[in-house]
Recover the amino acids of this structure.
């Protein structure tokens, strides 16, 4: 799954380019899915999804396992639902997905505006290099 020199993406007009990956989110219980962008976030312990996406995926938001967490926006409730996240082929390449975060509980958070690809379940598996001056990043598996 090496991703080399992938350019930062500005996913909304006028937004700042950031290290983002094209992803597909899947509810494995219903097969419902959607495509979006995920922010590579070294400050996020876990992957997280905006609560507004729960209904699109067929999850009843508040039926998920609830816990209180602290974010940059303060304390909030999160609702965990079994979800699969696929990192899509980079640069429009055809073929298989680049990486799969397997079916696991993922937190859906109110007031979250972007999908976060955090340390647990994703970044902890890779070597991440971010070149902010050039606005590119690379992800590769550890050697050995």
């Amino acid at each position: 799954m090496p991703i080399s020199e992938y350019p930062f993406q500005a996913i909304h007009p006028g937004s700042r380019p950031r290290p983002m990956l094209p992803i597909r989110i899947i509810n494995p219980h219903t097969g419902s899915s959607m495509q979006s962008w995920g922010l590579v976030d070294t400050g996020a312990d876990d992957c997280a999804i905006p609560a507004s996406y729960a209904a699109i995926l067929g999850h009843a938001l508040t039926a998920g396992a609830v816990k209180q967490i602290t974010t940059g926006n303060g304390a909030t409730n999160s609702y965990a639902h079994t979800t699969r996240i696929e990192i899509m082929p980079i640069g429009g390449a055809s073929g298989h997905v680049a990486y799969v975060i397997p079916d696991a509980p993922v937190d859906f958070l109110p007031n979250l505006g972007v999908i976060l690809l955090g340390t647990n379940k994703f970044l902890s598996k890779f070597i991440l290099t971010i070149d902010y001056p050039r606005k590119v990043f690379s992800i590769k598996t550890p050697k050995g």
Observations:
- The mean pLDDT is 89.
- The radius of gyration is 15 Å.
- The CA atoms of residues 54 and 80 lie 10 Å apart.
- Strands lie at 3-7, 20-26, 33-40, 48-50, 65-71, 74-87, 99-109, 115-117, 127-131, 136-140.
